[in-house]
Write a structure and sequence with these properties.
Rossmann fold; alpha/beta; single chain; about 220 residues; globular
Amino acid sequence: MTTVMLVHGAWHRPACWARLEPELHALGHDTRSPALRSAGEHPTAGMHEDAAVLAEELASIEGPVVLLGHSYGGIPVTEAAAGAGNVVRLIYLAAYMPDKGQSMYTLHGAPDPEDMGGLFPLGDDPRTSLYGDLTDADAEQAMSGLVQQTVRSFAEKVDAAAWRDIPSTYIVTEQDKSLPPALQEQMAAQATEIRRITSSHSPFLSQPRRLAALIDGISRPA
C-alpha cells in the first residue's frame, strides 16, 4: 500500500490533518504529514526551504508515495517531487500548481514583491474563506491553530515542475472562497486528471471520510 504524504497550506500546521489521517489509516494507507518551515510563530523560511524539507521526508520513505499538497502546499510539492523516484502520483487539493519559474504571485498575475522579508497577512475573514462549510465550533477550533506565514514562501519561484513527469490529479473544491474555482480549473487543466468535491477550501476538516475515499480511489493502481 502507498504512503500518502500530506502537505499543509499556508498559515497551517500538520495538525490540520488530524481528521483525515485516521480515515486514510482505516483504508490501509500509511501517512506522513511534515511541517513546512515557512509557517510558524516566527517563520523566516521560503518555498525552497519547504521543498527541501519535503525532499528529505520523501527520501526517508520506503515504497511508493502519493504526495498531496493543499493550497500553498502544492508549490513546494511541485519542486520537491522532481527527481524523487518513489512518488507515483501527485494530488493537488485546491492547490497551486506552478510551472517552472512560477510562484504564487505569478499564478495570481501579481508583480514580485519589492521586499521578500516579513510576513504575509492572513486576511480579514478566515472563517469564510478557509472554513465556510464547518460548524462555528469547528471553525473556531481550526482558526485557533493558525500561525504566521512568510512572504518569501509566496514569492520564490519553483526550479522544477514535477507534474510534467509524474501523473497528477487535481481536486477542485467547488465552493471555495479562498482559491477561486475558476483559477483552480485553469491550473487543473495541466493535470493528468481532474476530480471535484462539493466543499469549501478545507474538505479534510469538513468531509474527511469522503475526501479519504477520494484519495484512496486515486491512489490505487488502475
